[in-house]
# Entry
Amino acid sequence: MPAHDSKRNAGGTTRKSGKGSVAAGGLMARMHDRRMQRRKIGLKVAAGWIFCLVAGIASSQIRYRGRATTEPLPEREFHPGAEFHMARVKYRTFGGAGSHGLIQPWWAIDYPYAEEHFFAALRRVTNLTVSDDEAHLELTDERIFQYPFLFLQQPGQGNWRPTSQEAASLREYLLRGGFLLVDDLHGEYDWPIFESAMKRVMPDRPIVEIPADDPLMHVFYDLDERNPIPGVRHLYRGPGGRIVAQMEGTPHWRGIYDDHNRLIVAINFNIDMGDSWEHADDPYYPVPMTALGYKFGVNYVIYAMTH
# Structure
């Protein structure tokens, strides 16, 4: 399983590990800086930019294409000066799936193409500097406090069951200013597994529907239409050759808020945003669905960096 290292502080109190101490107030200070930088993140992007970008990615060649292996992929260079870094949550699981000749564990299901495509889009439509590196970290790893943005995929199929220590670490991370995005969670089987896991993490905080007027839905793009974002497995060719999506349920954008009404966990339920990124270069995957996946992804990142 791939495991990559990177450096970013999501701190509150000083923490010590084998690699030295993490400065106190790290993430909160950075979040303040991000608020001051909102002018820099200019809303310079019309909807047509995303469609052009998707078309550009579709015509490009991606590294490692067709590599049928479960061996770890090469580590990417860490860019300490970048404003945005992301880490995937690595958890114990059995089995996995994938595409493009890659079989990945459930927690890395869309890696690396989802990140390669989305990071390119994020750079293009904002003024953010985005690092190509991405850590794959267990929740007990002190380095999660170096990242303000965690990405958790397939917690249902992957049967994510955090230990008491993992749950406590994630709870501390979230309450100190971190942000968790959950994706690729579907149907009546997946939801109870995830809900049970989150009750261990945040036992006193409910999972609620994210309202249409929440800042998340308008922080960069105005996301007034909540259309399904399918995985490739949800697509089939209908009458006249039109690509149609058959989802496993109604899409929901859910979340958990802190005492200051800040969204700290965002949950894509019956949504596969990762596939919309991963298959941006696949002519079979509809461009409008990738464009919508990019827009939600951009809003998640900008929200996490400014709230």
